């Protein structure tokens, strides 16, 4: 039975009000080689018609009665599947066709618990998208293969036995559930691989408010309570790093955004930290 289970590859997509993109995310799993035996969509309390559209396509949808957040949705995705290897992608993204094939090669090392991909977006004339690419996705950064990376679940292949060994996703975490799980995996001696050739394509645009919240969430860590010390970290990031990159790119609209970012945080931080809003399950 155990050997049979190890042969199964499962997939899941958590989503929350992502009707416009979740079908593409699911399709990117179904297009992988080798074929994924089972795919589940976890509806984290959506109010749009995403679940209905997936049902029409024959996709199995597990619906949570109310929005519970990323940790709970990802834990449910693991619980509703059975394969030793579980591939997932956020509902605002899609995996390139070679993702699973390459990620499985890394999994030949039995110490590897997860293989993560890289966020990618097309070039854009939109000032918000350019700023997102520069500071959130770091499009111009020449990344290398990293065998000791932080866990990022934007697009990832997981080893079920490793996840189970450290207790799985923390269902109470509305964000940074991947950072938390990744730390526990590494403390237990598991390896997390980041392979920058595994591209995870972004399917949505963001407003300035949305992209600011995403940059905050990427960098705030697991303790999102406001303090002067934590806010000052963002001041140094925005004015010491981001602003310099904007000027080098001759993007003066982006520079203005970076200049204002810490002040936006002062107003928005408390709401981002305690709100049940789940940002449409985008990383």
Large-scale geometry = globular
Return Rg in Å.
19 Å
SS-derived structural category: alpha/beta
Determine the N-to-C terminus distance: 35 Å
> What number is the mean pLDDT?
93
Strand portion: 15-25%
**Uncertain runs:** 1-5
Q: Major β-sheet, in short?
A: 8 strands, mixed
Helicity level: 40-55%
With helices defined by DSSP (H or I, 4 residues minimum), what is the helix count?
11
Strand order of the largest sheet: 3-2-1-4-7-6-8-5
SSE string, helices as H and strands as E? HEHEHEHEEHEHEHHEHHH
* Assembly state (oligomeric): single chain
The total of beta strands comes to 8
Describe this structure in words.
The chain is an alpha/beta fold. It is 43% helix and 18% strand. It is built from 11 helices and 8 strands. The protein has an 8-stranded mixed β-sheet with strand order 3-2-1-4-7-6-8-5, sandwiched between helices. Helix 9 packs across helix 11 and helix 10 runs antiparallel to helix 11 (252-274). The chain is globular, with a radius of gyration of 19 Å.
């Amino acid at each position: 039975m155990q050997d049979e289970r190890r042969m199964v590859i499962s997939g899941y997509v958590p989503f929350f009000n992502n009707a416009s993109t979740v079908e593409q995310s699911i399709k990117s799993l179904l297009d992988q080689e080798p074929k994924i035996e089972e795919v589940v969509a976890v509806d984290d309390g959506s109010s749009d018609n995403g679940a209905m559209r997936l049902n029409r396509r024959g996709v199995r949808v597990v619906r949570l009665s109310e929005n519970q957040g990323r940790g709970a949705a990802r834990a449910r995705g693991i619980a509703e599947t059975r394969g030793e290897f579980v591939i997932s992608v956020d509902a605002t993204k899609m995996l390139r066709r070679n993702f699973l094939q390459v990620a499985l090669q890394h999994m030949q090392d039995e110490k590897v618990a997860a293989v993560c991909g890289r966020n990618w977006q097309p070039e854009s004339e939109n000032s918000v998208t350019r700023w997102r690419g520069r500071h959130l996705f770091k499009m111009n950064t020449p990344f290398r293969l990293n065998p000791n990376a932080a866990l990022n679940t934007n697009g990832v292949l997981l080893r079920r036995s490793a996840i189970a060994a450290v207790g799985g996703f923390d269902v109470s975490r509305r964000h940074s559930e991947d950072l938390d799980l990744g730390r526990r995996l590494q403390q237990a001696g598991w390896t997390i691989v980041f392979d920058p050739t595994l591209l995870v394509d972004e399917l949505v645009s963001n407003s300035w408010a949305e992209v600011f919240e995403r940059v905050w969430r990427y960098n705030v860590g697991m303790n999102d309570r406001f303090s002067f010390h934590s806010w000052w970290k963002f001041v140094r990031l925005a004015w010491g790093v981001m602003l310099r990159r904007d000027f080098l790119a001759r993007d003066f609209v982006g520079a203005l955004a970076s200049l204002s970012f810490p002040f936006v945080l002062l107003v928005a931080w408390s709401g981002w930290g305690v709100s049940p809003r789940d940002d449409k399950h985008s990383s």
